[in-house]
């Protein structure tokens, strides 16, 4: 994979299938990386599933009423993910695993990009250590 491709957020990285989303919330493991609640599920990539990451980003209307503010929060989370996914993405490809991740925003106010990036980086590191390093390390 080329360096330029690592920093992109492609359509195939978005978690869109209803069955995958239901499986994520039914069987997934959850933890907090404030201001995010992170839910993830992993497994071995088979015929239909390509090794790598799939991401879902959500900001509830109950907490952030204005649509423009919700969109900004989701955009900040996606940008932080896009810039920090490299290590986990490569580890998934090498180990032949897939990981579906949901980032759900839980704060009542809009945080800065720095806080959002710190939370996303913390979440991705925790997932990598738990899922990839437990098998390899």
UniProtKB/TrEMBL annotation:
Catalytic activity: Endonucleolytic cleavage of RNA, removing 5'-extranucleotides from tRNA precursor
Domain of life: Bacteria
A Pfam match: Ribonuclease_P
UniProt enzyme class: hydrolase
Single GO MF annotation: tRNA binding
Statement: the UniProt record of this protein carries the keyword Transcription regulation: no
PROSITE patterns: RIBONUCLEASE_P
Enzyme Commission number, as recorded: 3.1.26.5
Gene Ontology biological-process annotations: tRNA 5'-leader removal
Keywords, ordered alphabetically: Endonuclease, Hydrolase, Nuclease, RNA-binding, tRNA processing
Keyword tRNA processing: yes
Quaternary state and interactors: Consists of a catalytic RNA component (M1 or rnpB) and a protein subunit.
Role, per record: RNaseP catalyzes the removal of the 5'-leader sequence from pre-tRNA to produce the mature 5'-terminus. It can also cleave other RNA substrates such as 4.5S RNA. The protein component plays an auxiliary but essential role in vivo by binding to the 5'-leader sequence and broadening the substrate specificity of the ribozyme.
Family: Belongs to the RnpA family.
HAMAP family, per the entry: RNase_P
UniProt name for this protein: Ribonuclease P protein component
Species of the source: Tannerella forsythia (strain ATCC 43037 / JCM 10827 / CCUG 21028 A / KCTC 5666 / FDC 338)
Gene: rnpA
